[in-house]
Every structure is written in C-alpha cells, then in structure tokens.
Amino acid sequence: MMILSENDINQAASMNDIIQAIEEAYVLYEDNLFQMPLRSHVQDSDNVLLLMPCVAKNAVGTKLVSVNPSNIKQPVTQGIIVLNDRTTGTPKALLNGTLLTGLKTGAVGGAAIKYLATPEAKSVGLIGTGYQGLYQIAAACSVRDIKEINLFNRTSSKLPNFIESLKKLVPSDITIQVASSRLELVKGSDIIITSTSSNSPVLPNVETIFNGKLIIGIGSYLPHMREYSETIYKNLDYLYVDTLDAIKESGDIIQPLQNNWLEPSQIVAFSKIVTGKVSPVYSSDRPTVFKSTGMALFDLIVADAIYQKALAKGIGQEIYL
Length: 321
Prior knowledge:
- The protein contains 11 helices and 16 strands.
- The radius of gyration is 19 Å and the shape is globular.
- Strand 8, helix 4 (about 130-145) and strand 9 form a beta-alpha-beta unit.
- The chain has helices spanning about 5-10, 15-30, 95-115, 130-145, 160-165, 180-185, 230-235, 245-250, 250-260, 270-275, 295-315, and strands at about 1-5, 35, 40-45, 45-55, 60-65, 75-85, 90-95, 125, 150, 175-180, 190-195, 215, 240, 265-270, 290, 315-320.
C-alpha cells in the first residue's frame, strides 16, 4: 500500500489536474456510473465526524473526515482517505485527506467558475478565510485571469496568516486586499465565494448588488447552516448544485424551498452543465448561483487521479501490511 503525504500530493498533481478529475466525476455522476450512499454524520456538540464511501471505475474509496469549527491551530476539516482495488479489495493507498479535501473542494469551486463565470471576470471575493478558502482562491486563479482578490473574515486577526499562505498559491502580481465589510467585498468582486460554517446568512440581504456576478457557496453542508441571503433566491433563474443530495443536506436549499423562495424546478445538477446537456444562463440582471455540499465521488476520483500520477512519478512511500 502506498502512503501519500501532503508533500507527496502536492508533487503529484496540480490544481488543473484536480479540476479535470472533478469534471470526470461529474460525467460519472450524470451517467450514474457509481455507488454512493448518503454520508454518515456523527454529531458531537459543534463537531462532526463524517464517513463517506464510494465505488466507481476500478476503485473503492472511503473518506473519514472530522469537522471541528473551533479549531485554531489545526484546519477545521481534517481526514484520511483509503483507496482500495475494486476487484480484489486490496488497499492501494492511504492519502492525506486534509489536503485532498482542500484541493478537491477548491477544484469543485474552480470547475464552477470555469463553466459559469464570464470570461471577463477579473476579481474574486472570499468570505471566510479558513483552510478551505486558500484552495478556493487558488482554483479560481487557475481558471480565470484574476487580477484582484478581496477578503473578509469576521475575525480580522486571522487575515495576516491567511494572506501569507495565500501568496504561496497564487501569482505574485495579483492584488490582495481586505474588505471593510461584506457589502464592500460583494460590490468589488465579479466572483463571490462563501466558505464558512455559519448558521445564518453571511451575504448582504440587498437587492441588485449580486446582478451579473457568480456566487459560489461552499460552507453550508447541514440543514441548520446557511450562507445565502433571502434576496439571492428571489432574483435568480436557476440554482446549480454539485449533487442533488444537497437538496436534503444544506440549509441553503432546504430553507428556501420551505419558504417558497425557490422552486424545485429551478435546481439544476451541475453535471448537466459539464456534460453539455444544459447550457448555463447568464444575465446582467440576475446572479449566477452555485451551491456545493460535496460528495464521496469527488474524493474517490481525485484520490485515484493523484494515486495514478504518484505511481507514474515514483512518488510516495510503499508499505506492506
């Protein structure tokens, strides 16, 4: 079995490689060429333990991930991924799931930007500057010619360390600035990304300010969590989701449906965009909105892609069980 550390993963695959793997996962999702039960949650006060198995292609993947919102010195989301051969069941690899989750989640946002953002988009704003946010911005910069990054975090003391880490992942000529408010960030950004664990909306409830912009919601993955404001739902054509399971999982979809701000017919699986079955709707009078809750299929396909590249490059440590 191969052990792939954080350093190994970084050497094996680029962000563009990970985005390509996410696109492959969407094709498998659309063609129903996978087996994936709903992820299991174990709630421990504010902390969550998730078990995420999946079968697709020639591999079986299982991710064990913890989400501890109060973490300060460690990432909020940490985990490991075990990759098994589908035919024999033999363990093939054990991967650092913390980095892989960051890269994978960033690539989900990156794929959304690749297909949904206007080619002219030059600025990206991030609300929630945790570990996941680093890779959201890195992915955005890999698919668009970003010139300006706007940041907002309710705990401003976290921003200097975040900016130092971010500078290692993005081109040096990009301007990085801190917004004084969420409203200022939205007004100054073509692409807006939310990456928080908030239970209440983090985007301003102001009409028209989102028109012509792309909004990507990454953080809310449980029914009580919500990042989007009411006005966003009242002024959109469609809500694109990475998986239809998000309808049962995320407060950003459950609550608007319950309040009749959103109709079920407006929810579109993003796999239909990737496979060309549906063309995205752009309008300067409406926002374009994407919501992600993640799924084990992404983790499996990304883990297998990294494993294959590590094999080809002779990266990783082989152990015998």
